Structure formats: structure tokens, C-alpha cells
Amino acid sequence: MQADIETTIRQFIEDNFLFREDRTALSDTESLLDAGLIDSTGVLELVVFLEREFGIAVADADIVPENLDSISRIAGYVVRKTAEPCVSSDS
Amino acid sequence: MCGIAGYYGRADAPQPAIETLRRMIGTLSHRGPDGSGIHAGSEAGLAHARLSIIDVATGQQPMSSHDGTVWITFNGEIFNYVELRRDLVARGRRFRTESDTEVIVQLYEDMGPDCVELLNGDFAFALWDGRRHQLMLARDRAGVRPLYYTRRGQRLYFASEVKALLQAPGVTAEVDPVALDQIFTLWAPLAPRTPFKDIFELPPAHMLIAGPQGTQVRPYWRLSYPEAGDESAVDRRAEHEIVDELEALLVDATRIRLRSDVPVGAYLSGGLDSSLLTAVMKTLAPDRLRTFSVTFESLEFDEGAYQREMVRALATEHTSIACSTSDIGRIFPDVIRHVERPILRTAPAPLFMLSEHVHANGFKVVLTGEGADEVFGGYDIFKEAKVRRFCAAQPRSQRRLQLLQRLYPYLPALKNQSQRYREAFFATGAGDLADPLFSHLPRFRTTAGAKDFFSAPLREALHGYDALAELRERLPPEFDRWHPLSQAQYLETAHLLPGYILSSQGDRVSMAHSVEGRFPFLDHRVIEFGARLAPRLKLRTLREKHILREAAKRFLPAAIAGRPKQPYRAPDSQSFVGPQAPAFAAEALAPSRIHALGLFEPRAVEKLVRKCASQPFVGFRDNMAFVGVLSTQTLVQQFVHAGLPRPLAQAA
Predict the structure, then answer these.
(1) Comparing B417 with B478, which gets the higher pLDDT?
(2) Nearest 5°: phi and psi at B540?
(3) Could B619 and A63 be called an inter-chain contact, meaning their C-beta atoms sit closer than 8 Å?
(4) Which residues are CB-neighbours of A77 under 8 A, at least 6 positions away?
(5) What mean pLDDT comes out for the span B515-524?
(6) Under an 8 A CB cutoff, do B449 and A43 touch?
(7) Class of domain B2-176+190-219
(8) What residue ranges do the domains of chain B occupy?
């Protein structure tokens, strides 16, 4: 369910990017970039988490703000990826 | 190389001067294990801990002039002392020793404080002039050798390291919040500020004169670049002639740095700079060249394959020391005790191990490649700034954005980073483009994320302070007229180099094991030559250190001369977390300890520690924050709360 996915993602963001107690809570649609919460390699921390947590493979071309820059965008991306059939490679 | 300490002025405290000097110099035996000396006078006192390198037999210090009115205590080497001495002898002066120390004394008698301008070397010295009743302190141009000072009552105390100053009566360590803000933004405090209140660092290329009329601090040299678009400054020679000049300079800078009565080795990291240096040394002193390096378990950091290739090509006698994350965890408190400031990376720790390895192999002096990236445009940050400017000039150009993809080829994980994210993190607005600090803004902003962990009282104390604004104010008036590459080079050379590279990664960790580093690329003639070069000879499109690579082709196989830069890095937070985590780290980061020292927010740090312990991959910003918090906690515990730090036990 998208709501469960969003909760899991929110928890991860709060545990790993939101450090200041007095920072106002992050809304589902707030941009992580604009909020200064994520740096250039923080994005990769997020990708590793998504792959492990949801068992998806994040393609290089998917690592774009459209897919990853807010809690609801990330959840939407995960839902789309988990709906895809598994494609096995030959190598 | 050595340690120095002393005072100027009358005592308030009852402690006898000799006792004070003895305590101060006693903390510096790692810098000078070969003996010590003291000269205590009523107006000034000098102390010296010796690492005997030149004139082992008669060069003891403190040293006086013939008539005993001038006294000196000196840490460093004057590499052109042979030529200076020859001139002085030709003018009728007579020498009692073979030392470079005596050359400074004689030059001072001849010329006064301006004698510093003739010195080509790495130095920090204190000179007492009994006739003028004044004390002079001086420091070399690049900031290789350290010199700290503080005032208590009527007295000025000075020393090579803060730990020696803390032995003087009435001198205690207290954290300077502004310095913390500067470190957690710029990677280093802005000299003369240090992490400790009222304890100052003499800036590089400066002298201090303390006398009956008061105290004056002034520069004797300035790093400067030609104005962009100044046609008269353009060098119209053919490139190969410029390379000829560079080659001659480098060879001479290396030649004079081989002057020693004890054997000289080299650090061979596998990169272009140390490879070139080692190759030049081989032509000057080919017999049994001894080289050293550090290796890592993780492929992400290790350069072992390149090192082995160079060792084969140059036939050096090479040994290396392996550094693991548990090593870094184990030695970190000792490293902090020596660097005496918070650090944001663990990179000093493997170099601390390397100097121990060098010392255990019986060497006191090594030549190393520091400075080449600053002088010849080697760092990625220079390329990055160039591409960012290019993109900002036409923000919609996709093709320009693809250039961003060519940056950072060495880190495996970053290869996967999307171009659009890189654009978001590195692209700039019009306001940023107009900022004199443009080249370094991404780094400063990423680093400043570590300040999210400052406690409320610390943020309160810093309310309204802006480290970037202060740095802008410090820039030379002609800065705006320089080429953008020169501007970026200036920021690296004038601030990061002395504030971090030469101190925490250089002098402090090598002298911890009585090893003196020497830097041919920081010969002031090489620095000045590099500053005069047209930017396209340094960064040709995106080929860094172009002119240096051309010179290197004359000494090295093409594959090595053409090798792209692999920045020196070491494992960071992973050295302090997990099942093998060292006890000191858990204690230093415990919420109760964070709360007790009052500088950081306990719950925020707790989250950070949990993140670094559980996430397989932690980014730059949080790694820097982790190491920054841990090193600050450790430093404050050692210097402020646990009383005066004792000197480390010396290996026999």
C-alpha cells in the first residue's frame, strides 16, 4: 500500500537526514533539495536504502529529482517499480 | 626540525623563568628528541628541543651572536643557507658553526628583521635582540612550520605547539566558538585565530616584533597573481621554454632540500607529484633511494598498485605501512593531541602511522609532493569551478551539463550519480556567480551542514556571525581582478594549505614521530613561478596540472605522467562505529558527554552516530559532521577538561 510505503520512507528520511529537533516536520511533498536535507552523496544513501528495503533495482537513469526529491515522489516511484515484472539479465 | 618556546616581557607569576621554559619545552620532545637547550634572560627567554639534521656536531640552540646580544631559537631549515653564508663570508663575517641557524643570526645582524626576505626555507623562529630590546617572531611563506603565541599580563609567550603554551603560568585552554564555526565551514580557522580563545597563530609570511613601543604584526611576502587580461603579464615564450624553466626550478628546489647530514627519504604515494619528485631525487642522488608509503584495505582509498609501478620504474627501496579502519580508530586520540584542532576528515591518521614507520626505519627527513596541486592547479575543485561557470553562462545548455559528468571519476559510487542531481548540487545562480568565493561554495555549503549539530547555546553565541563574510573581507583588494582559476588557487594556497594540509596532515603528524617533511613544490620561487603562469598552462580545458605533466614526461613513463588525480582520502566514520569500535569514541559521543561539554546537540548526534553505524554508505556531509563532532569532543576533553596534556612516550 502506498501509505505504508510512505511511512517507511518518511521514517528513513527522518532518521537519516532530519537531525535538528527544532526543524519543522517534513511534508510529503516538500523538496529535499530545497530544504537542504540531502547532499550529493546523500542521494546514493537513499538509493541503497530503497534497493534493500523494497527489493527493487534502481537504474542510473532513475536517479533524478522527479523520482526522489520528496516523500510522495519516492513512494510513487517505489510503487511503479514494484509493479514491474522482474527482468533477469543473461550475464 | 625542532620545537621552540619562550617568552618576552617581565613575569607576573612567581615561577622562575627557567622552570617555565623547561616545562614548555618538555612538551615538545617529539619534535626534538636529540637534546634541548634553554636561555633565560630578564627580558626574554628562549628554549629549544632539537632534531639534529644539519651540523649535528655544533649547531646547538638557543644560539647567540658573537657578542651575545642576539639569541635565536629556530625550528626549520634554510635551504639556501650555503649561498647566503658564502655571501656573508665574502663580506668579512666569520662563522663558528656549520649550521643554517647561524646564517639567520648573522643576516639579522647585517640587515635587521627584513633579513627574512632572503630566506628560502621552512621556518618558525624567535630572535631576541638585546640591543634594541625587541623580540622578533617569523614564519615561512607557505605555513609549513607552526608558531603560536599568547599574552598573559606583561608577558608574551610563544611556542611551536599549543600544548607548550599551556605550560606557561596562567595560560589555560578555552574553546573559541568563532573558530569552531570557521572550521565547520572553511575546514580551518582564519589565522591568527585558533580553536582556543586568546591563543593565536602567527600567520604564514608574517613577522611579529615585540618591543618597548608595543607589538606589531606584518607580512613580509604576499601571494599574488597577475590581473586577468593584463597583456604585459602574458608570457609569450614557446611552451617548451616555459617547461624548461619549470624543470630547472624543480630540480634546484629539490637539490637544496637534499642538504642534510642525515639520510633523506621520500613519500611515494603513487600519484604524479610524489612520483615526479622521487624521479628528480633519483637523478640527483641515485644511490639506494629510500621511499615510503601507506596502503589501505579498501580499494576505494588504496593506491598500492600505482606505488608498486613507480617503485619498479625508479628502482627505489620501498616499504609501506598498511592502515586499517581499526588502526585509525585506535590512534585517533593521539592524532588529535598532536593536531590540536578539530578535523573533518581522518586523513591525518594514516600519515601519523606513516611517520612512525619512517622513524622506525631510522629516517628523520622525507621529501613529499605537497603543494603541487595548489601551485599548478591540480585539485578537482578547480575543474569543477570552471565547468560550473561554463554551465551558469548558458543554464539551458544540455551539452554543457554533460561536462559535469566527467568530474569525480575516481569514487566508485559517484559514477552512478545522475547528471541532474549533480546539476542541482553544483549549478549556480547569478548571485553565486558574482561571489568571490564561487569556486568553493559547494564545499563550504556541504561542510556547513555539520553545524546542524551545534547546541543551542553554541548557536546563540554565534548569532549573526558569518564565516564566509569574514573570509570575503580578508581577500586582497586586487582579488576581483584576478582570473577565476587564480582566485580559486588563492583560496586553497592561502587558507586550506596552511590551515589543514600542512598542519594537520603535515607538520603535526610527521613531527609527532620526529620526522621532518620537506616540500620542493613550496619553494617560494616555484610558488611565484606558478602564480605567474597563464591559467591555460595549469588547467588546459579539463586537464589539470598541464604544465607540470609536460615537465613530468621528461622524468617519468607516459602512463604515470598522464595519470588522472586520485585524491588522498582515508576511511572516515566507519573507523569508529560497529563491533570493533574503539572505546574512546563511544564515550566521546555518548549523550551524557555531548551534554556535558555543551557544544553539540545530544539527540541529533545520537541519530548521526546511529546512521553511521547502520547505513552501508554515508555521504560526505555526514561523514564530515561525524569526524568533526568526534574530534572536537576529543580535543576539548584533552585540552580543556583533562588538564594539561602530557607528552607522548617516545619510542627508543
Answers:
(1) B478
(2) -90, 110
(3) no
(4) A62, A67, A68
(5) 98
(6) no
(7) alpha beta
(8) 2-176+190-219, 573-641
Beta carbons within 10 angstroms of residue B272's beta carbon = 28
Tens of pLDDT along B549-563? Answer: 999 999 998 878 888
Strand partners, B201: B148
In this prediction, the answer to ipTM > 0.85 reads no
Residues of chain B contacting A63 with CB distance shorter than 8 Å: 416-418, 421
The predicted-structure confidence for B438-465, as pLDDT tens digits, reads as follows 999 988 988 998 999 999 999 999 999 9
C-alpha cell at B126: 624567535
- Phi/psi of residue A58, nearest 5 degrees: -90, 115
Tell me how crowded residue B57 is: count the other CB atoms within 10 A of its CB: 10
Q: Is residue B115 among the annotated active site residues? A: no
Beta strands per DSSP E along B178-332: 199-201, 206-211, 214-219, 264-267, 290-296, 317-323
Q: Which domains does chain A have, with CATH numbers?
A: 2-18+29-83 (1.10.1200.10)
Q: What is the mean pLDDT of chain B?
A: 90
To the nearest 10 degrees (0 to 180), the angle between helices B304-314 and B272-284 is 20
Residues from chain B that touch A41, judged by Cβ atoms under 8 A, are 413-414, 417, 617, 619-621
The pTM score is: 0.91
> Are A16 and B615 an interchain contact pair (Cβ–Cβ within 8 Å)?
yes
Mean pLDDT of the B313-317 span: 91
